[in-house]
Design brief:
heterodimer, B: about 425 residues, WD40/YVTN_repeat-like_dom_sf (chain B), WD repeat-containing protein 18 (chain B)
């Protein structure tokens, strides 16, 4: 039983009931685990020879994958290539030829993803490859590009534009070299040639018509917009490239082209004199080849297509003939004549964009034609062929406005905007109108003014209103606007109209807070008008009132501008300088009025601006009609204060000398310019180096480390900073020269003397630089005709002693003042040699019994040095008794203590130079 | 005949004893003096080797002396205003004078005032002709230097504004002196200015070749004939030498401790007003406001001689003495005409005399020379006679012509055959 039961246990039948879950079998396979495939994206092998990317594929593998039939492989190869090249940029140089040939080949790939990857790779590569590196491969690149542009598949055509964008951005010079093919491609992108037989015989301009392709993803208008945007970019690059070669003309292209800087040499005389700079003016004598030559034996960019691009007027004419009818068609499509009636309320965004691109292309074509057109034949041809068309289509509804988009259509427009954001994200109806005016105005000239007066008048009104409207214009709009105005002014003989235009520009100029580029443009515009006016001869010269008001306001503006905007100040100074050198009366009058502000030593433009502008301002002084005393005193402050730089200060003194009555020929005295008194007082105050206030302030200084005091001299020395000292010294040189060249030497010496005795004698604290400079000037000016004022001598003697005392007590460690030593010693000794009476007075003042014991060694050393100095020896000899007396006094004072070294030296020197002299002892003996 | 003597012509502003003195360059011997008036700066000119012209300082006339009759003032040319500078064309046909801001151009043979150029905005300070007289350069206190072509100035119609060939506006302060180099229209012009620079320009291209910046305003400039050096006189009396040709090969050999002093002539105490170099380039003459004229050896930079005058030196120049200067028997080939004060054509009675004065060069030869028609006939005769002679000389000619025609025919045939053959070849595969 048990056995049976047991067996029953073993093979118990499981009863399955409806509604209950089936119990799991014990031997059922568990299927609840999850599996994952092991994915090995990278090879384990490590190639040591070539760098690899993340997937361990080297450049050869990747390039060979490019030939794979599958789009996915190609795409991944392109991505891998990008990865590899970003990690190892040096591969680019090594394999450029292979990379480019493979990458450009897939511009025409059927798979959109592959093309996208190729474009991305190109985008990545382009900034890394320089123009001269890619130029040998550029024929290949452009061949692939043009095959993509002319491809039958629309997608490839669209993507080719992206490639073109990249190339235009990075290699404008190279791509414009292939213009003959590319321009044709552009035309073919938006149109097709009529091949029907009836049209064959007609001229080619009619044989192209706009094409509509229903298969495109975008509307044909958007497509055209895209193509036209690229075309205008391309033409822009072309125009830029050619304007670099030719001399630019007009306000738009006023890039700073420094006149012939390439071959003119600028050198500094000092460098040349030191043989640091050699001059080689004549090219044939040069031993070095001229390396900056642009000449190439082989023409790399354009192989045999030179005769077809737009560089010749004939080809340009041909292209214009093809493209302009197409553009007009585009315009009509964007703005159908039946809708045009309602144009007053505005044009919608998208047509406006098309219109703008159309006008852009035309204006660029005009610009190109102007660059090539020397004889104005092209201009008249353009006028003949297109004026009527343009007038009819463009001008009939001239000022175009943007229509505000209504709410219901917002969704729609958003979508279209998304397409167009690449091209131009904001539509600028003002720019559109201005471009149109530019195009139209360039078709007219002075001789045809009669016929065109109606539409010219419209444009003029529009321009004037825009200028006066006070709207915020950006520099691009303003550039166009001023270009149109300039052209209008040029061809308009009528003065009132011109005056109105200038006035309108002036109202714009008067606005506050204009941006610098805008302000610069306006200034350039005015200066151009001014120069044009000045070119006319006197009879025909007509002074525009607004213009002269503008010009007259410049000095005041400059003075108010201060240091806020140095660039603007530079421009203003340039114009003022030009006008002043041309002796423009209004300007000079205003400059005179503003001079006190400009040349203010505290915050005038002359001290706050950078050095370049300072120099121009200093030069401007030459042209001032009069130099009154107050201006001169300011200028002398400017010179002294050291904010002008010593070389510039010297220049200033030189210029003033040139304007003074002493430089000219005797007859040409301009007495109204600057009186001699003012000039001399300028020189003297510059010589002093300190203003009266500063000097009086100095008088109260005592016991400061900067003041040197001795017990033997009433004059205290104020020690100046080394910088100030050297600056003062440099200026003194210039002042000295100015004084020296005054013909009546004795008179100028007298004036200098009386000035010193009036302003400096009686002061107790004197700056060391002032004392030194006065000595220097007196030494240089003194000659046999001059009579020295008696009252001056004691002052000079005490100054001299103070200086010498200062020099002898200088400590070795004081590096700053040590540099002064040689200069000061030289002037002191020379003044003592030139004026023996000063020496005598100084020796007399050495009452050693009043001196402090510390000062005695200094006096001893001084006497020894004076004795040793050869030029002074004879004078010392005449004062031998005095010297002997002083030495005797010192010896008695020192007798108590031990004989020191300096005293021994002094005794020795005295005995050698004076007692040893043949006459010396006899005189002494006679006296004793 | 010996080489012409080099002499120095000087004037000073005082003019106490004489207004102009001529002395021999090397010996310093006084040769001639001219009396009357004070010559102004840059106002001395030699006309055609026969007359000496001196613009008077601050006065509105020009003195003219015959070169050999030194003591006698020949003529006073009245001008509309004080003359600031004066020059004459090298061929002696024109006189240029700067009067205020205008340039006056006279024709010497008639004395007519041909043109008044007013492109300067302030006083003209110096005027120079190029060596061949085809161009002249003017510079003024308005910082501008203008290069004019004489032809275009003379031919322009009065209605149009006369434009200079080049406008050089890089100077920023008044130009004080200019020197025109050798080479006619290819010459280089050096200008000196108070803005402390000396600039060198090319007349042919109008380019700025060189600009040298100094420490002081430059008041005079000159070049030697070979244009190896520019000499620049500074406002403090130093004269600087700028070498235009560097010799890179020499740089290793030249070790001179005092190199930087080797390019300055020091001696004058006031601004140098005029400079001149002798034709061999070895001697430099300088005149200064310190009332002295100095002669320097260019190579060693030493002062050879100092001549002290009575006033600031206004003009000093080394010239080759024209034969008339030293020959008392010499008479000028042309009497100096009366110089007109008014522009030709603007005068009232001008049409009456001016109408018939159209000169045609070579007119006096017309009688002797055959006309062009006659010449043509002559030429034809010569040609035909030559042809006839050839024909007669060789009877072969017709035969030769025949031969050649035959050859042409055969060549044509071959060409046609070739064409047929090739078309056959080409068209076969399409068959």
């Amino acid at each position: 039983m048990t056995k049976k039961r047991k067996r029953q246990d073993d093979f118990q039948k499981v009863k399955l009931k409806v509604g209950k879950k089936k119990p799991k079998l014990e031997n059922a396979t568990a299927t609840n685990f999850k599996t994952k495939a092991i994915h090995l994206p990278e090879q384990l092998k490590e190639d040591r020879t070539l760098p690899t990317n993340n997937r361990k594929l080297n450049i050869k593998d990747l390039l060979s994958q490019m030939h794979h039939y599958s789009g996915g492989v190609k795409q991944s190869a392109l991505l891998g290539l990008k990865d590899l090249l970003s990690q190892y940029p040096f591969i680019i140089d090594a394999h450029l030829s292979n990379i480019l040939s493979e990458v450009t080949a897939v511009f025409t790939d059927r798979d959109a993803n592959v093309r996208l990857a190729a474009v991305q790779l190109l985008q990545f590569l382009a900034p890394k490859i320089r123009t001269e590196h890619i130029s040998p491969f550029f024929p290949l690149v452009s061949a692939h590009l043009s095959s993509a542009m002319t491809h039958i598949t629309e997608g490839i055509q669209e993507d080719s534009l992206k490639v073109l964008d990249i190339l235009l951005e990075h290699y404008p010079a190279l791509i414009t070299g292939r213009s003959s093919i590319l321009l044709k491609n552009f035309v073919e992108l938006i149109s097709h040639q009529q091949l029907s037989k009836g049209l064959v015989n007609r001229d080619r301009s009619q044989s192209w018509i706009l094409s509509v392709n229903p298969n495109r993803r975008v509307t044909s208008q958007q497509w055209r917009l895209k193509v036209l945007a690229r075309l205008s970019k391309f033409l822009q690059a072309l125009a830029d490239g050619s304007s670099r070669l030719r001399e630019s003309e007009g306000l738009q292209e006023q890039k700073e082209t420094p006149h012939a800087t390439s071959n003119s040499i600028f050198i500094n005389w000092k460098d040349h004199a030191n043989d640091q700079q050699q001059i080689q003016v004549y090219e044939n004598g040069g031993s070095q080849p001229n390396v900056s030559s642009q000449f190439r034996l082989r023409c790399l960019g354009t192989l045999g297509t030179v005769d077809e691009d737009l560089s010749s007027p004939e080809n340009l004419k041909g292209f214009i003939e093809i493209i302009i009818p197409l553009l007009i068609e585009c315009w009509i499509e964007a703005l159908p004549p039946q809708l045009a009636a309602s144009v007053g309320s505005g044009v919608e965004r998208e047509p406006l964009q098309v219109m703008q691109q159309v006008l852009n292309v035309i204006s660029l074509l005009w610009k190109l034609s102007k660059q090539q057109d020397e004889t104005h034949t092209l201009e008249s041809w353009l006028r003949k062929n297109y004026l009527t068309d343009f007038k009819h289509h463009f001008m009939s509804h001239f000022p175009y406005a943007l229509k505000e988009i209504t709410k219901q259509r917002k969704k729609d427009t958003n979508k279209s905007i998304k397409h167009c954001t690449v091209l131009s994200n904001n539509v600028d109806h003002l720019l559109l109108n201005l471009t149109l005016s530019d195009i139209m105005v360039s078709l007219a000239n002075a001789s045809t003014l009669q016929n065109d007066s109606s539409w010219i008048e419209t444009i003029r009104k529009f321009v004037t209103e825009t200028l006066k409207g006070g709207t915020r214009l950006n520099s691009k709009q303003l550039n166009r606007l001023l270009g149109v105005s300039w052209r209008l002014i040029q061809m308009q003989p009528n003065r009132d109209a011109t005056e109105n235009l200038i006035k309108a520009v002036y109202t714009l100029y008067q606005q506050r807070g204009l941006l610098l580029p805008v302000r610069t443009l306006l200034i350039k515009f005015f200066s151009k008008i001014y120069q044009k006016e000045e070119l006319r001869s006197y009879r025909l010269r007509y002074r525009s009132k607004v213009l002269s008001r503008w010009l007259a306001g410049l000095p005041l503006q400059l003075s108010y501008l201060g240091s806020r905007n140095p660039e603007l100040s530079t421009q203003l100074i340039d114009i003022i300088h030009t006008a002043a050198s041309q002796a423009n009366k209004d300007l000079l009058k205003n400059l005179q009025a503003a001079a006190l502000r400009i040349y203010d030593p505290q915050e005038g433009a002359v001290v706050v601006l950078p050095a370049e502008s300072q120099q121009r301002l200093v030069q401007l002084l030459y042209f001032l009609p009069t130099l009154p005393a107050d201006l001169l005193s300011q200028l002398s402050r400017c010179c002294i204060m050291g904010r002008l730089g010593s070389s510039l200060a010297v220049t200033l003194i030189g210029i003033l000398y040139m304007r003074s009555s002493f430089s000219g020929w005797s007859h040409s005295v301009n007495d109204c310019l600057m009186t001699d008194v003012d000039y001399l007082s300028f020189l003297f105050s510059t010589l002093t180096g300190f203003s009266k206030e500063e000097l009086t302030w100095l008088q109260n200084l005592r016991g400061v480390p900067h003041v040197v005091q001795t017990s033997l001299s009433p004059v205290l020395l104020y020690l100046t900073d080394l910088d100030q000292f050297l600056h003062h010294w440099d200026i003194t040189e210039a002042v000295c020269h100015s004084l020296l060249v005054i013909p009546a030497r004795s008179q100028s010496f007298d004036i200098m003397q009386s000035a010193i005795s009036k302003h400096l004698v009686g002061l107790t604290v004197i700056p060391d630089s002032t004392a030194g400079c006065i000595f220097g000037v007196m030494c240089k000016l003194l000659d046999h005709t001059c009579v020295v004022n008696e009252a001056l001598l004691p002052f000079l003697a005490s100054c001299c002693y103070s200086l010498l005392y200062f020099l002898l007590t200088l400590e070795k460690g004081d590096a700053e003042h040590l540099k002064k030593r040689d200069k000061l010693w030289e002037v002191c000794v020379s003044i003592l040699a030139l004026l023996p009476r000063v020496l005598r007075l100084m020796l007399q003042s050495l009452r050693v019994n009043r001196a402090s014991p510390e000062e005695l060694p200094v006096v001893g050393q001084l006497l020894r040095l004076l004795l040793q100095h050869v030029p002074l020896r004879s004078h010392m000899l005449t004062n031998a008794i005095l010297v002997q007396q002083i030495i005797k006094n010192i010896t008695t004072l020192k007798s108590g203590s031990v004989q020191e070294q300096w005293l021994t030296d002094l005794h020795y020197c005295f005995s050698v130079y004076i007692s040893g002299h043949p006459q010396g002892p006899s005189i002494l003996n006679a006296l004793y | 005949m010996a080489a012409p003597m080099e002499v120095v012509v000087c004037t000073d502003a005082a003019a106490q004893l004489w207004s102009c003195v001529v002395w021999e360059l090397h010996s310093g011997a006084n040769l001639l003096t001219y009396r009357g008036g004070q010559a102004g700066p840059r106002g001395l000119a030699l006309l055609n080797g026969e007359y000496l012209l001196a613009a008077q300082q601050g006065k509105n006339y020009i003195c003219a002396w015959e070169l050999q009759r030194k003591d006698q003032l020949q003529q006073k040319i009245m001008c509309p205003g004080p003359v600031t500078c004066l020059t004459t064309a090298p061929n002696g046909l024109y006189v240029l004078a700067g009067i205020a801001e205008s340039i006056y151009l006279w024709e010497v043979c008639t004395g007519n005032l041909l043109v008044i150029l007013s492109r300067h905005y302030q006083d003209v300070s110096c005027l120079k002709f190029t060596g061949d007289g085809s161009h002249f350069v003017s510079a003024g206190k308005d910082c501008l230097a203008l290069a004019w072509s004489l032809c275009s100035v003379l031919q322009a119609d009065p209605s149009r504004i006369l434009a200079p060939r080049h406008v050089w506006s890089q100077h920023t302060l008044p130009i004080t002196d200019l020197h025109c180099g050798f080479g006619g229209p290819m010459a280089r012009v050096a200008t000196a200015s108070l803005d402390q620079t000396v600039k060198l320009w090319a007349i042919s291209s109008g380019d700025l070749l060189l600009s040298v910046l100094f420490d002081m305003g430059i008041t005079s400039v000159t070049m030697d004939l070979a244009e190896h050096h520019i000499f620049c006189g500074g406002s403090d009396g130093s004269i600087f030498q700028v070498d235009l040709c560097s010799w890179p090969g020499l740089r290793e050999h030249s070790f001179q401790p005092e190199q930087n002093t080797g390019k300055v002539f020091k001696g004058h105490r006031n601004q140098v007003t005029c400079l001149s170099v002798s034709t061999d380039g070895s001697v430099l003459l300088s005149g200064s406001h310190d009332e002295s004229v100095r002669l320097w050896d260019v190579k060693s930079k030493q002062c050879l001689r100092t001549v002290t005058l009575k006033g600031p030196v206004t003009n000093a120049a080394i010239i080759l003495a024209p034969p008339s200067m030293l020959n008392p028997e010499f008479r000028p080939s042309l009497p100096l005409p009366h110089f007109n004060k008014h522009l030709l054509g603007a005068e009232h009675g001008d049409e009456a005399q001016g109408g018939g004065l159209r000169l045609q060069l070579g007119l006096h030869l017309q009688g002797k020379e055959p006309s062009y028609l006659e010449r043509l006939e002559q030429l034809q005769a010569v040609l035909s006679s030559y042809l006839e002679k050839n024909m007669l000389g060789s009877q072969m000619l017709p035969a030769r012509v025949f031969d050649l025609e035959d050859e042409v025919r055969s060549l044509r045939k071959i060409n046609r055959d070739l064409f047929d053959f090739s078309t056959r070849i080409i068209t076969r595969p399409s068959k």
